[in-house]
Automatic annotation (TrEMBL):
The chain crosses the membrane at residues 341-360, 365-384, 570-595. It comes from Anopheles sinensis. This is Ionotropic receptor. It comes from the Eukaryota. It is a multi-pass membrane protein. The keyword S-adenosyl-L-methionine does not apply. It is found in: Cell membrane. Keywords: Cell membrane, Glycoprotein, Membrane, Receptor, Signal, Transmembrane, Transmembrane helix. Residues 1-23 form the signal peptide. GO terms for cellular component: plasma membrane.
Amino acid sequence: MKCFLRSVVTLVLLAQIVLIGGSIELPDTERLVAEKVAKFLSTILTDHSGGSVGGVCFFGNLARWWREVQDFLPIRYPPGGRILWRTQFIAARQCETPELCSTALWVGGGDAWKCEVVVVALTQKHLGKHLETLSNVPFWTASAVHVFVLDATRARERDHQLTELLATFGITRSLYVQAKRDSSFEVHFPILFQRRVVPVSPLEASHRWLQNFDQLANLHGFQYRTLYHTLIPYLYRYDGVFGGPDYHFLQTALERQNATHLWIYHKSTDTRLNSTDLQYVDRKLLEWGRVTFSLNRLMVGHPSSQLEKLYLNSFDGTCVMVPRRQLQTFILRLWEPFSQYLWYAVLLIALLTIVGNVALPKLFVVNYLLALLFGSAIVEYRLAALDRTILLILDILLFLLREAYTAKIITYMIQIRYEPELQTMAELAQSGPPLLLAPGEYDKFAETLASMKPSPRFEIRQDFSSFATTWQEYFRPGFAHLVPCSYGQALVLSDEMNEPSAPKFYLLRERLSMLPEAFTFSRNSPFIGKLGFFVASLQEAGIYGSWLRSDHYARDYTPTLDEILRFENLASLFYVLLVGYVASMVVFVAERLVAKVRASLSRKRLRVWAKRARIEAGTGNAMQTRLS
C-alpha cells in the first residue's frame, strides 16, 4: 500500500514536471544530489512547521535535478520509524510568481496549506534580473524558511548582495544551498544584519541555526527609520532635544539590539506625498517601506492589508485643546472671597454701630468704626465695660475677616488668573474660539462636527509644521486644536506650558473619539515580534509606568496653597496696587487743584478786600479833608 501511494504521487508529480519542462532522465549523480536535498528540505519542513499543515514552494528557473527534488518530497517520515499510519504527504508547488509563494493559500487533498519552506532558484548569469524580480514583491512571509538555491559558480559578492537585500525583505529565516557536481551540496547561513555568510553543516542548519539563532538580537548598526511630527503621543522635541516615554522605549530597543535610528520628516515639496495630513503620510511611508515602523499610537485611516498593529493594551482618543483667556475683571474678584450674605452682615453691623452712636449717644459713647480703624489713638482701659466688650467682639470679628480675606486673595493670586474653563463642545461652540483643523483632521471629523448642535466654528490650517517647528508656533493661541488626549494632557501639565512667556491651554472634558493605542508596522515586518517583546517586558516590569511618572511632560504642576509666592503670582497684587496708586494720584492732583483754586480765590478775595479797603480809606480821607 505504501509503495502504491508513493508511485501514484510520483506519477502525478512527473506529469507536472512534463507539463513544466518535459521529463528528462537525470544521471545517477544528479539524482543522488536531488534525493539528499529533498531529505534536507523535508527535515527543515518537519522542524519548522511543528506538525502543522504546510508545504514546499518552488520559484525560479530550476534545473532538471531541482525538478527531480519534488519527486523525493511526497512522503514525510516521522521520527522513530516509517509507520504507515503516521506517514504524511508533503505538498509541493511550483509558483509562477514569488508573490504566490508568500501570499497564496493552496488547497490540496482537501486540506489548505501554505508555503512553510520557499525554495528560490538563482543563477549567476541572470542574478540582476532575479534580484529585481524579488525586490518587486510587496512583502514576504517572515515566518517561512527561505532556501535560496545558487548555481555552482561561487561568488562572494553575490552572497553579500543577496544578504543585504534579504534584510530589507524582512526575511529572518534563510539558507543558501549550493549543489556540487560530486553529488554533494554546501549550506551557508546568512547573518543578515552583519552582512556576512557562514558555512554550516546540513545537520546543524535546521536545529542550531534556523531554530536557535536570533537574527534580531544584534542588528549590527541597522538603521531604524521613523517619521516625526508634532502630534505623536508620548514623544516631544524641546530645544532640539527629544524626550518622552516612547523616546525612552526607542532608545532602549536601539541599545538592546545594537541598532541606530534616523528621524524622517515629511516635506511639502515631496512630489509623491504632497499632503499636510501627516497621518496619511505616515501610513504611505510604511506601505512603501521608507520607514521601519510608526511611533504614532493613534494612526488611523482606511484598513490596509499591508500594515500590522502592535497593540499596547491601552486606549487613547482625540481631545480638543482650548487656549486659556486672561481674567479681565480681577478687581471684581476682590468681592468673591466672601459670600454675598457675609458682606450684607458686615454692612449691617456697620450701620448698627452708626445708628447706635447717633440714636443713643449717651449709651454708646465711642464711635466704634473709628475705634476699629484708629484703635491706637484710644485708651481702652478708660472706656466703660460695655464699650470695651463691644470693641473686643468687633476687633475679633475684624481679625477673622481680615485674615480669611488675605488668605483667599493670595489663593486667587496663585490659581485664578484665567476665565473659567469650558467643559463641552456645545460650550465651545457658544463662547469658545474656532477650531483650527488640518486637512486630514477635517476629513476625519467633518461629519462629527456637523452633527453637533450648535456646530462649532472651524478654519482649515493653511500652514504646516516643519522639523524646527515648536509647539508654541504650531498651536496658535487664538484657536482651539485637535490633539491626542495623552499628548494634550502631558503638554498641559508640562513645565514648558508653565513658563511665563508660553501660551496656556487646557483640554475639554468631552472627547471626540476613543481608540486603542498601537505601534504600526508594515505587513510581516521582522521587527514586530521583537519590539512587542520589549513593550511587554517594560510594561510588566513597571518601567514604562515609571517613565510616564518621571517624565517632565507628565508631572503635576498644579499650584498648592503652601507654595511660595513667585513674582508672576503677584501680578494681580501689582494690578491692585497700580489701580490704588492711580486713584491716589488722581485724588492728589484733584486736591492740589482744589487747593490752588482755593488759594487763588483767597488771594483774589483778599485783593478785592484790600482794594475795597483802600477805596473806603481814600473816601474817608477825602471827606475829612472837605470837612476840615
